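Researcher: Please translate sequence to structure tokens.
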Amino acid sequence: MRRTDFSTNFLAVVACLLWSSAFAGIKLGLPYTTPLHFAGIRFFISGLLVLPLAIKRNPGFLKSVKTYLPFILLISFIQTFLQYALFYTGISMVSGALAAIIIGSGPLFVALVAHFTIPDERLTIKKAGIFVMGIAGIILVSIGRNKGITVRSAAIIGILILLGNNLLSGISNVLIATEKKSVPPLILSAFSMMIGGALLFMVSIPVEGWVFTPKPTVYYLSLTWLSILSAVAISIWTILLKRPGVSVSDLSFWKFIIPVAGAGLAWILLKDEHPDIESVTGMIIIAVALILMNSGKKKVEKV
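Model: Translation complete:
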């Protein structure tokens, strides 16, 4: 494997491991606030954290922002505002197991969008089979952790909302990867999170009401961690999407490790969570799928 490939895979795993801890952070902080309000503040702070590095790494910072402002606004609206508005809304309408399965199928949506929009990213039968393996693993992990899946009639809307979230994720990933003007990744990350976070916050006021009340320390700790992990993970992912030669669908496949790492963290940190046969089997299936995906890439490189 070339050094650049190792670097790409390593950074992708780091980003996904950071994202896997977000569920615990949200669970700790959300009881003390409302979803859109929480998400808005989280992403606005994340953007602020990335901003100094974006300024330092780009001498023509203001010129770049002005030149690429339309694209920055588009990604801010799709990737941060719409995606997370749908995410928080949909996840509140379905069971935890079902939400985990639908959200976990996100990499397949990225691959499907790339298949129809990027000539070099056609979804082969083998690759589709590997994606199905990954989704099957997620289903087992989710069932194991939640011991069953319930679908109420009212949850159909929530399912559609989460599927819409996955579709938007695929669209935003492809847009970033195929953008021809080479927007500096850190500038795009900083402003998309700041603008998207500000929009989420402003919408939260008429939708959820004014929620400024004293909060316990655990809320601020969770908000701090979520802001930091979003700043780092989203910036890494944006850089990787714009890296020459990186396949959008192959990169997205690494996201299958998010529920695996999330389950592992839950077993370590939460007293009520323990390993079970379904979850362990699902993890093994996902691991095999990851090996198959990367072994296929190595064969292509050798040829």
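Researcher: Any highlights?
Model: The chain has one domain: 3-302.
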